[in-house]
Amino acid sequence: MKITFNRLGALVAGLLAIGALSAYRLSPAHTPLVKFKQIVGADISFIPQLEAEGRKFYDNGVNKDPFTILKDHGFNYVRLRIFNNPRADSGYSPKGYCGLADTKKMALRIKAAGMGFLLDFHYSDTWADPGKQYKPAVWKNANNQQLQDSIKAFTALVLKELKKQGTLPDMVQVGNEINHGILWPDGKLKNLDTLAGFLKAGTNAVRIFDPRIRIMLHIACGGQNAESRYFLDNMLKRGVSFDIIGESYYPEWHGTPDSLKKNLTDLTTRYKQDVIVAEYSQHKREVNDIALSLPGNKVKGSFIWEPFSWGETFVDKQGNTNAFIKTYDDISKAYHISQ
Hints:
The chain has eleven helices and ten strands. The protein has helices at residues 5-24, 47-52, 66-72, 100-112, 144-164, 192-209, 225-237, 251-254, 257-270, 284-293, 323-335, and strands spanning 39-43, 58-59, 62-63, 77-82, 116-121, 171-174, 214-219, 244-248, 274-279, 299-305.
């Protein structure tokens, strides 16, 4: 029987999934996980690259580690994205940024800072978002079952490596901005059963590895209630198990802060899951006021996206903190953010 290299890779991945999951199913959970009542977080996955390029950061004129700056201004959580093989020909980074080795180093820094850790699986070698969800190169020719096995294998492998160094994530995203699906074309939104199967492969892998880890489904529908409900209802109908609804909010795509508030208010009353604003940049105070003040305490907080280098950054081009950082001093004080 002729098996292509890519298919063989997927088959091996499936075998790894079975071995990795069974080996850790009953293993004791030694790694402590954190749980904050409310989250003020940041995705700072660019930091290793920025530091390698010589970037330094200053707060009130003092050179500080970016984790220290975050902590000093009320942040208690960090999100990291991870790609399957960023060094692939079509991958994110020839230097391997946001791959497993890079993620392990950053995870050590997160835990050393005493912060929560959200790990964002893209299940791609490069950026995944509503406009693109490219399969990892080695999964390109895999069939449906092989793709599910490969998702399980990669998820288990990453968690195993993080557990070995005592840095398990406290929360995991199974996919990034997945309201149009993952692993296109197979897992496009129109193929709801296939998409649900892929997501269940990821969520089940996390549950089996360590049921304490909270699982997020992350969609980019911050101000779009009908689209949010369509996705969530269809995944719940098909048995996808998750703990948190993550929403991206960018006003150019998702409307006004009021549209975000209306959507999140409905989601908190309609679903049992908690809600988090998983990405934003603008309207910093408004977004956090919404995320931290809605009735019922079901919106748990927010993650600003790459605030040291993208969008409305809270540092200038020389790396000095600017007026935006003071917003988080006010937020931390107003909502008694724990660290």
